[in-house]
Amino acid sequence: MSDARRALPSVNALLESEALRPVLERAPRGVVVDAVRRTIDAARTAPASVPRDDTAWAAAVAEAVDASTRPSLRPVINATGVVLHTNLGRAPLAHAAIEAIARVASGFSNLEYDIAHGARGSRYTHCAALLRELTGAEDALVVNNGAAALVLVLNTLAARREAVVSRGELIEIGGSFRIPDIMEKSGARLVEIGTTNRTHVDDYRRALTSETGVLLKVHRSNFAVEGFVAEATAAELASVARDRELPLLHDLGSGLLLSLADYGLSGEPTARDALRAGASVVTMSGDKLLGGPQAGIVLGTHDIIDRVRKNPLTRSYRVDKLTLAALEATLALCREPERAMREIPVLAQLTTDRDALRVRAERIARQLAGAPVRVDESDASVGGGAFPTARIASIALSIGGDATTIERRLREGDPTVVARVRDGRVLLDLRTIFPAEDERVVTAIRAALA
User: Fold this and answer.
1) Between 146-158 and 302-310, two packed helices, what is the crossing angle to 10 degrees?
2) Phi, psi at 177, each rounded to 5°
3) Is residue 144 a contact partner of residue 316, using CB atoms and an 8 Å limit?
4) How open is the CA angle 314-317-318, to the nearest 5 degrees?
5) CA–CA separation, 47 and 8 (whole Å)
């Protein structure tokens, strides 16, 4: 039998073939040349896959071109049931935020220009008024992410001084970043008190010295401690801090502005709650329960926020105009809680009634009649380190068959659908799939089962 590799075309022969002309018309020539070379090399190492004619060669080259020109960062459909999925970009933006980004990005803006006075202004004024209104804080500052907010405040209040924190709150957040490591980089000296499961107010009092710069309370992310436990409340720590004229820093992480207790999600403090309890300064994220862009938010007294604003490190953590535009639009929605629950995607997904999800799932299942797809009950989760023990009743499309293959085909397909496997079946949780994506989900499932 003759070896198909003896008939491999040259690079020039393929480039000059009529079948490849459409590919050359839609992609840069250099990209096509590289794709041709890769395709020929692939055929050389796998004789069974050698294309049979010019049309087949052109199709193989076109596939290689598509792979090399596809954006690295691209949209996916989140079918995992984890609303704030860090790996999938956390909070999707509200339409109002997207429109605000487009308005600001399409031309010049008053990012650091005071229109009223015709003079240089500050980027830190653009969201401050809304944050003060929504949280009751005296002042506010926005930086580029939550970890930056914590580092910046610690550096301002406790550089080369002691920061007192419970051992039970020395958590690890996403990407193996740990609170002790963050504190070390801030220049603060960590003082651990209490034990993993029990820390009392007196533990904080006994730890205070003339070197103490701040008392720190950290919201626990992704886990809960139950059983024989004790912790000092924010209000109790605020009393200790006031007695010693020290600031209390409360790192919330989640960025919750509007209570979700009416929807069965309770126990997570809002920013207003933390400030009312007596925190001198609160740090939190913008892309978690707030539902906005990635940002770090610092709320607190005039004096502390002014000191943080003047810290030279602030410039290295400063936020860009697109983030400010998106955050301002998201905060504006929070002025009307009912509207925020409808229009901020994260809040809408967390609060949607399960019966509404069932209606959508059954409609999708009918379109897939004959396929091994059924509608099952499911449990979704909040994600992002918020409400770590909460399970949200949900509805999922459950696909039978070779779960490993189906999950991979969904993940590698177009659109990309990220699902999960449970009991040998692939689950697509409707809570994290937007209604506008339903038809694309139908297409993706059909392709995965083909």
Assistant:
1) 100
2) -85, 130
3) no
4) 80
5) 10
Helix (H) or strand (E) holding 351: helix 345-351
pLDDT at 1: 45
Phi-psi region of 222 (alpha: psi -120 to 50; beta: other; left: phi over 0): left
**Nearest partner of 217 among 264, 181, 253, 261, judged by Cα:** 253
Which candidate, 103, 89, 101, 138, places its Cα nearest to that of 309? 138
In 3D space, the residue among 446, 442, 418 whose CA is nearest the CA of residue 432 turns out to be: 418
Which regions of the chain are under pLDDT 50? Answer: 1
With contact defined as beta carbons under 8 Å apart, do 272 and 136 qualify? yes
Tell me if residue 202 falls in helix, strand or coil.
Answer: helix
Q: Is residue 6 exposed (0-12), middle (13-18) or buried (19+ Cβ within 10 Å)?
A: exposed
Residues 6+ apart with CB under 8 A from 114: 120, 121
Q: What is the structure's pLDDT at 162? A: 96
Angle ∠(225,87,128) on CA atoms, nearest 5: 80
CB 80 within 8 A of CB 302: no
CA-based torsion, 130, 308, 109, 293: positive or negative: negative
Question: DSSP characters for 107-150?
Answer: S---TTEETTTTEE--GGGTTHHHHHHHH--SEEEEES-HHHHH
| Residue-wise DSSP of 380-394 | EEEETTSSTT--EEE
> What gap in Å lies between CA 69 and CA 415, rounded to an integer?
16
Among 76, 86, 82, residue whose Cα is nearest residue 444: 76
Cα separation, 43 vs 38, whole angstroms: 9
Cα torsion angle, 354, 360, 362, 368, sign: negative
| Backbone dihedral angles phi then psi of residue 159, each to the nearest 5 degrees | -60, 130
| Planar angle of CA 169, 173, 175, nearest 5 degrees | 155
Whole-angstrom CA distances from 238 to 194, 268, 269 are 18, 18, 15
- What's the distance, CA 182 to chain centroid? 20
Burial class from Cβ neighbours inside 10 Å (0-12, 13-18, 19+) for residue 167 reads middle
Taking the C-alpha atoms of residue 413 and residue 441, their distance in angstroms, rounded to an integer, is 11
Q: Are 253 and 146 in contact (CB under 8 A)?
A: yes
Task: Give the pTM.
Answer: 0.91
Reference 333, options 119, 174, 97; nearest CA is: 97
